[in-house]
Write a structure and sequence with these properties.
TIM Barrel; binds beta-D-glucopyranose; alpha/beta; single chain; eight-stranded parallel beta barrel
Length: 414
């Protein structure tokens, strides 16, 4: 990369989420996995048969074990080894989640061993000079909290505040970057509207209620954290889609894009803009929309069948900057790509788009790839592979993918 515009202290890193890597969790997701694994395996042909890699994934997706997070990739016990890999890739930042259900397994009872674990975990990152980015909530919750209705009820925010205060007191001294919530829009819509994820509701009003309460949850967590640590940088990880009109000349297509942009991208950020020190941006999707619905090009597609347009992040970076004038950190970005066919191209395109954005004056401060390691991909289970590092779940052996080596070389050259 010639004439790099990346600032000297740019955060180069990778992201993970507690439930997707740790193993041994007990939360509302693990309960749901056990109750739904058979059904998901039986319906797998309906969901995946259209994918070009169907012959390769068929056996795994029709096996109920695919849908159980189980011992994860044992990151909870192998984190020291994983941090060495972060270093080996030349990364200086690592995003991780802490698991509420471990810290407060029963209402009001804190597990000191779990607290000590995360304290040691953060200290281990610091010791290696890796900047920790802590996520407080990445969709999983203790079952006692979801039994009470979780974020469906405004009065439950009392438990959330208590959790945030506790984490802030116990772990706050070790972290400068905090993401309170991961992708509230995805959680609200997939869990409460589409009904594909727990608690599997199909209720637009409920969805809006949850969405609103998550905005309150963020604002409250922000105030709690900043009161104690005014210098900490607190935000959310927002999943933003690059919506484009199928036809630039069709006013209806353009109207649909404005409407979905507002609902999906801006609604939450507009309501929390006073409590965001930067914008955490997760990017996976460019969507060409027409008044008749989604009209994406036929390819290229990743393993999950998602249309790939990595440069689409460029338009989003500019749009976010124009609208909020706040620094941006890309908190997730990546592809499901078992054979590592597209990942290098995806990262190269993204780096180019980032350079263009920097040239245009966007205050971009970091790039965290999703994910460091192959991990548990929610209701799709174990088969999609997003990792810079492949993981063999039988031996738990980690192997750096060629694209990741290439990425490491690019960072080194900057
Ligand atoms: C989520 C991750 C997930 C990734 C790939 C993001 O929306 O935050 O947990 O693994 O997408 O699907």
């Amino acid at each position: 990369m010639t004439n790099s515009l990346f600032p000297k202290h740019f955060l180069w890193g990778a992201s993970t989420a507690a439930h997707q890597v740790e193993g041994g969790n007990h939360n509302q997701w693990t309960v749901w996995e056990r109750a739904n694994a058979e059904r998901l395996a039986a319906n797998a042909p309906e969901r995946y048969r259209h994918l070009p890699n169907w012959p390769a994934i068929k056996e795994q997706v029709c096996d109920p074990h695919n849908y159980i997070s189980g011992n994860g990739i044992e990151h909870y016990s192998r984190y020291a080894e994983d941090f060495k890999l972060v270093k080996a890739l030349g990364l200086n930042t690592f995003r991780f989640g802490i698991e509420w259900s471990r810290l407060e397994p029963r209402e009001g009872e804190w597990d000191d061993t779990a607290i000590a674990h995360y304290r040691t975990y953060i200290a281990a990152l610091r010791k290696q000079h890796i900047e920790p980015v802590l996520t407080l909530w990445h969709w999983t919750m203790p079952t006692w909290f979801t039994d009470k209705g979780a974020f469906e009820k405004r009065q439950n925010l009392h438990y959330w505040r208590r959790y945030v205060k506790k984490v802030c007191d116990e772990l706050g001294a070790g972290v400068s970057y905090v993401l309170t919530l991961n992708e509230p829009n995805v959680y609200a819509s997939v869990s409460y509207m589409e009904g594909r994820w727990p608690p599997q509701k199909h209720n637009a009003l409920r969805m809006l209620g949850v969405y609103g309460n998550l905005a309150r949850a963020h604002r409250q967590a922000y105030e709690i954290w900043k009161k104690r640590y005014p210098k900490a940088r607190v935000s959310i990880a927002a999943q933003l889609a690059n919506g484009q009109p199928r036809s630039r000349y069709n006013p209806l297509d353009r109207l649909i894009v404005c409407f979905t942009d507002y609902l999906w991208n801006w609604w939450f950020l507009d309501r929390t803009r006073g409590q965001l020190d930067f914008i955490g941006l997760n990017y996976y999707f460019t969507q060409y929309l027409s008044w008749r619905g989604l009209r994406n090009p036929a390819g290229p597609l990743n393993d999950l069948g998602w249309y790939m347009e990595p440069r689409g992040i460029g338009r989003l970076l500019q749009a976010v900057w124009r609208r909020y004038k706040k620094p941006i950190i890309i908190t997730e970005n990546g592809v499901a790509d078992t054979t590592d066919t597209h990942r290098q191209w995806w990262i190269a395109e993204t780096m180019q788009a980032m350079q263009d954005a920097l040239r245009a004056g966007v205050q971009l401060e970091g790039y965290l790839h999703w994910s460091l390691l192959d991990n548990f991909e929610w209701s799709d289970g174990w088969w999609p592979h997003f990792g810079l590092i492949a993981v063999d779940r039988t031996t738990m052996q980690r192997t750096i993918r060629p694209s990741a080596r290439w990425f490491a070389e690019q960072i080194k050259k900057l």
